[in-house]
Recover the amino acids of this structure.
């Protein structure tokens, strides 16, 4: 069985092709067309531009992935597409294209929760092509999932397929959004995460003592807007910092330390409180090496099995969309059919 995955929830147009054979899911190809350069001058994603790019790129990417695999559209047995959360007009492009294709081919169209894709992406392996040998045997239910991207910061208790309990999330900016906003304060280009990480390498993480949110032990919510404001006040009080590369590096390193410490502390606390010793982490911010290293260190100390998504699967992609629908087709709970887009689709059912 061949399944085409489609992802257009934000600023990446992505398609992937999954093959399901005897209960085993394999990602044959995954293509991503990033719009990073297009949005760069605006310091963030412009929904109208993202939508126009999806309209232009999606048919071309779908044709390319079929050609790359010597298949035609008629070879497809099913289509999976991101239902939400995301930007409404961007989601509509993928939804309409998937349904048009489904009607034309007489094949089912499945809706996938983008956050669910992130949650399970550490259990997919692009380089080995094999997602999981034999249904979902490699997925260590129950596990705690941390999703940290430009749009989301989320801690989820994942008991089983479709049995997700949100432990906490951000009450304002997402972690990636905080990186992007602080980068803008420092006159660094979008997206800010890699820029800050690069400069932080040369800086002193203890140079500034920026605040961390919700220090209470049992509070699994995050807030990053106070941290961003603290950086802004620091720069407003001392504008000379911006003129000096080593001061900028110190701000980057201190800001990064604050984000990493709070993410790691709350994630490990969530594992310890629930006594669940398996953790999945994914989303664009997990590309950050300091965060990865800190998670590795604390998980080892607390005997937590850490599953980190491959960097190519941390950022938005359609392999995770195709894989979720394929996993569900193989292992029991029917994937969603007959759905509308939902820009605010929650992770908890
Ligand atoms: O998952 P993603 O591609 O898109 C969303 O679904 O939001 O995440 C993009 C976010 C951006 O905010 C970007 O600044 C951040 O991930 N990011 C990083 C790094 N690489 C990307 N943040 C910190 N360090 C990085 N190395
Ligand atoms: Zn995402």
């Amino acid at each position: 069985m061949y399944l085409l995955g489609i992802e257009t929830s934000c600023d990446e147009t992505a398609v992937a092709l999954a093959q399901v054979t005897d209960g085993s899911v394999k990602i044959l190809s995954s293509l991503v067309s990033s719009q990073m350069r297009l949005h760069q001058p605006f310091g963030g994603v412009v929904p109208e531009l993202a939508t126009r790019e999806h309209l232009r790129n999606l048919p071309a990417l779908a044709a390319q992935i079929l050609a790359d695999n010597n298949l035609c559209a008629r070879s497809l047995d099913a289509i999976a597409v991101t239902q939400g959360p995301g930007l409404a007009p961007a989601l509509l492009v993928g939804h309409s294209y998937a349904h048009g294709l489904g009607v034309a081919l007489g094949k089912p169209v499945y809706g996938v929760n983008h956050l669910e894709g992130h949650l399970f992406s550490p259990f997919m392996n692009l380089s080995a092509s094999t997602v999981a040998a034999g249904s979902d045997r490699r997925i260590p239910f129950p596990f705690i999932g941390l999703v940290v991207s430009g749009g989301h910061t989320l801690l989820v208790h994942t008991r089983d397929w479709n049995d997700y309990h949100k432990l906490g999330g951000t009450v304002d900016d997402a972690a990636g959004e905080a990186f992007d906003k602080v980068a803008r304060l420092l006159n660094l280009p979008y997206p800010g995460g890699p820029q800050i990480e690069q400069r932080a390498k040369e800086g002193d993480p203890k140079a500034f003592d920026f605040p961390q949110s919700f220090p209470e032990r049992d509070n699994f919510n995050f807030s990053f807007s106070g941290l961003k404001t603290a950086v802004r006040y620091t720069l407003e009080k001392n504008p000379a910092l911006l003129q000096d590369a080593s001061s900028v590096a110190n701000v980057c390193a201190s800001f990064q330390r604050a984000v990493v410490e709070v993410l790691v502390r709350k994630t490990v606390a969530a594992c310890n409180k629930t006594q669940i010793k398996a953790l999945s982490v994914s989303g664009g911010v997990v590309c950050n090496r300091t965060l990865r290293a800190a998670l590795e260190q604390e998980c080892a100390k607390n005997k937590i099995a850490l599953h980190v998504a491959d960097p190519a699967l941390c950022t938005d992609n359609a392999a995770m969309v195709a894989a979720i629908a394929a996993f569900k087709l193989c292992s029991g709970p029917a994937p969603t059919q007959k759905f509308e887009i939902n820009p605010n689709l929650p992770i908890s059912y």
